[in-house]
Model the fold of this input.
Amino acid sequence: MLPETIEWISDVPLLRLLDQRKIPFSVGFRECRTYRETADAIEDMTVRGAPAIGVAAAYGIVLAAREDITKIDDAFTRLSATRPTAVNLFWSLNRMRSVYEKSMGAHDICSILESEANRIREEDIDINRRIGRNGAGLLPDKATVITHCNAGALATAGYGTALGVFRTAREAGKELKIFADETRPRFQGGRLTAFELCEDGFDVTVICDSMAAFLMSREKIDAVITGADRIALNGDTANKIGTYGLAVAADRHNVPFYIAAPLSTIDFNCPNGTKIPIEERNCSEVRKIGSELIVHEAAKVWNPAFDVTPAGLITGIITEEGVFAPEEIKKLKKKP
Done:
């Protein structure tokens, strides 16, 4: 059984995070007692995955309020600077700020903020299950699929987006064979997705990222389903580096390519993928595996954490409200 990704212990107060840097070698937890510790945990990828980041940040605001309500603006600033690409972070912080501003002066403002963070967490799990129901019908009774990075229970408050589709499909009696890209350079597929799916008894095979196109040429793949960190208004989608190449291979082999993500991942203020900020991480992630150097010290390293898949390569975007073609995304924007 999978451990909880995010646990809130109110009476301490304490945010307990599953340390995903240690999986699959060990299962351990990191305790955050301040918003600063929460921000550090987001930055160093103790907690990762766009929805999970958003939930953790919401509790970071609660920790700030419980510590010193006069410093809460510092908390919003610090947390918003942690990961620039995942729009759920900013969606969650904006939601918490709105509640804070409406509740300023209230004697129970800490409780109000805590209730909102709890609501964000509970809503995420419900949304993931709805995404799963909407996506499961896209798969045949016997399906072979590919996924990239980790968009499961470990990347959310629970259940998962892309992997949530697989969970719901299996619950409906469908038989799945899943190929998981290892997802260099941090191996979220090989480490996290394989761990999560094996713990839940799925048939999963790990492949190197560079093997996916050849696999499609040799075996019938029914769908590729990944998560997302930000979806632009025109349907262009940022996800873990390597997703774009996977979408190109899927297009070449006539394999449907789906994004599974909540509506909170859509940035209605971002017109297209060229405007999505792409986080670049430390070159050591590429230079080393663990502590072992694998790249010559004189070689330069480029390490973008995400890439952008053009809308034209995406078959559909699976959300809690249904499955939409990329060009339909703009219709989902709520009127002010």
Q: What stands out?
A: The two ends are 43 Å apart (CA to CA). The longest strand covers residues 175-181. The chain is about 35% helix and 20% strand.
